[in-house]
């Protein structure tokens, strides 16, 4: 279970680190959304070592980082993606506007997960659930989990609330945030050339 969390964290950090190099020359709404993504990336990078156990856990820092992510997610994120705003150096794929419902769902999901992480800050890092545990059949990214075919995007079980996530260990909530970022980037962010 710890390996799953570490792989999720590593994938999220790798995607986020690459963003920092791509933002030069951005203007207008593209710059605004890139700045928001950078703020979220910085928060994830600051929290990841605590979640991995390589730095001491700081609940106040978790709350602050989670609040930063939440403030740039949801409608704050989607409002920065007017249709056709793909001018370089934008990394937005046209699929965002072709599948707006999924994109907005992932943005809302990230906001809820981040709000849940903020609430979970006092719970400590904790552990990850066993596969098939509270997150659903094949994990969050799999066919039956929250991010997969039968989760929020697939019309299956309703998404968890921030209150419910806030009862979990912070490490688990952080993994959900990381996986939401990864899911959105995988579907809607252009590969770097």
From TrEMBL:
Coiled coil: none annotated. It comes from the Bacteria. It holds the Pfam family Cytochrom_C_2. One of its GO terms (molecular function) is heme binding. SUPFAM superfamilies: Cytochromes. Residues 1-22 form the signal peptide. One of its GO terms (biological process) is electron transport chain. It comes from Tropicimonas sediminicola. InterPro entries: Cyt_c/b562 (IPR010980), Cyt_c_II (IPR002321), Cyt_c_prime (IPR012127). GO terms for cellular component: periplasmic space. The keyword Electron transport applies. This is Cytochrome c556. Keywords: Electron transport, Heme, Iron, Metal-binding, Signal, Transport.
């Amino acid at each position: 279970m710890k390996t799953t969390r570490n792989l999720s964290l590593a994938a999220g950090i790798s995607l986020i680190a690459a963003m920092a190099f791509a933002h030069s020359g951005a203007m207008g709404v593209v710059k605004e959304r890139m700045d928001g993504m950078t703020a979220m990336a910085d928060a994830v990078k600051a929290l990841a070592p605590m979640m991995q156990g390589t730095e001491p856990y700081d609940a106040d820092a978790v709350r602050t980082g989670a609040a930063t992510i939440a403030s740039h997610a949801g409608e704050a994120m989607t409002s920065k993606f007017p249709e056709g705003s793909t001018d370089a150096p934008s990394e937005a794929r046209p699929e965002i506007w072709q599948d707006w419902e999924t994109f907005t769902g992932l943005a809302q999901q990230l906001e809820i997960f981040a709000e849940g992480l903020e609430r979970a800050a006092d719970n400590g890092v904790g552990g990850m659930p066993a596969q098939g545990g509270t997150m659903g059949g094949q994990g969050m990214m799999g066919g039956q989990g929250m991010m997969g075919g039968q989760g929020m995007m697939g019309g299956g079980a309703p998404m968890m609330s921030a209150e419910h996530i806030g009862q979990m260990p912070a490490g688990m909530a952080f993994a959900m945030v990381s996986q939401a970022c990864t899911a959105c980037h995988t579907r809607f962010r252009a590969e770097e050339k």
